[in-house]
Amino acid sequence: MRTSFERSQKTLLRRGGKYLCPGWQFEQQFFEDFKVELGALVEIEVGMERCGIMPGKDAAALARRIADAPGLKFRGLQAYHGRAQHLPTQQQRAQAIASAIDAVRETLEALAADNLKCEIIGGAGTGTFTFEAQSGVYNELQVGSYVFMDHEYNICDLRGLDKPTFEQALQIDARVVSANTPGMVTVDAGLKAMATEKGPPMILKGAVEGSTTRFMGDEHLAVIAPEGKVAPALAEQVILTPPHCDPTVNLYESYHVVKGDTLVEIWPVTARGRSR
Questions:
Q1: Is the distance from CB of 72 to CB of 40 less than 8 angstroms?
Q2: Within a domain: residue 263?
Q3: CATH number at residue 84
Q4: Burial classification of residue 176, based on how many CB atoms lie within 10 Å of its CB (0-12 exposed, 13-18 middle, 19 or more buried)
Q5: Same domain, residue pair 117 and 21
Q6: What is the sign, positive or negative, of the torsion defined by CA atoms of 184, 186, 190, 194?
Q7: Residue 117: inside a domain
Q8: What's the total number of domains in the chain?
Q9: CA separation for the pair 229, 211 (Å, rounded)
Q10: What is the pLDDT of residues 209-243, one digit of tens each?
Q11: Lowest-pLDDT range, 66-75, 77-86, 196-205?
Q12: What is d(CA 152, CA 197) in angstroms, rounded to the nearest whole number?
């Protein structure tokens, strides 16, 4: 009987590419049987306190173990600082990434001392990519959320220009299903329709300016108009900005791609159900 780890190894090798390995044990016979070489990145701790080995000599020692192991090839470093992505000011994010860059440089010096070539230095995200891109250190930017955007990123001043850098592409299409209270209506997009750890969604379109939202349960959301203003009517469309894009996408089977008000394509969310 094969273990799940053995099955995952074979899947990774058949698909090729890189594998981030915080801990690994591969048998020599396995690689000899498949006649393959698996490239590996060493993840270093750059300030997240989540995953990654300590930078410098510890990281270089792990890289050496990989380089000396049969069937493995040390390719580079994973140096992503996720905690820095949503820091509210540009100065705070710049300081956090400066520390990450220092950790990378310390590790590069240790690698060079052991004659280990570092091809890839990966990291960055939508909140900090300008700093990594200008660092002269990173050569692979792992930016993703900019494709969609969400409220959490929209309130970050990404370039110090006091305005959004990217447009809001990911939207939640809701409809008014109840209008039984003056100044407030209920739409069909509640806790199950989006990631909620960042609070209720903002309204992108379909309600008077200044309107707010409040969760009303699993399937329902209140849209509240400012005092003296009219709330949307029954059956009208209200478009919402997701509070957090990544885990919101994970809740859906497909994207409905629109141009203006016209549905042009439906794309499946191929990673649906594959969060582990």
A1: yes
A2: yes
A3: 3.20.20.10
A4: buried
A5: yes
A6: negative
A7: yes
A8: 2
A9: 9
A10: 999 999 999 999 999 999 999 999 999 999 999 99
A11: 66-75
A12: 11
AA letter at 40: A
Contacts of 78 by beta carbon, 8 Å cutoff, 6+ apart: 20, 41, 42, 43, 44, 52, 122, 123
Domain span at 12: 4-143
* Together in a domain, 246 and 118: no
CA dihedral 108→126→50→40, nearest 10 degrees, is -50
Q: Which is higher by pLDDT, 54 or 165?
A: 54
Asked whether residue 16 falls in the same domain as residue 133, the answer is yes
How far from the centroid of its chain's Cα atoms is residue 82's Cα?
A: 8
Q: What is the pLDDT of residue 274?
A: 79
Tokens found for residue 82: 């996720």
Q: Please indicate, yes or no, whether residues 177 and 99 belong to a single structural domain of this protein.
A: no
For the chain, give the mean pLDDT: 90
Paired strand residues for 43: 78
Cβ pair 200, 214 in contact under 8 A: yes
User: CATH no. for residue 264?
Assistant: 2.40.37.20
Q: For 249-271, what is the mean pLDDT?
A: 95
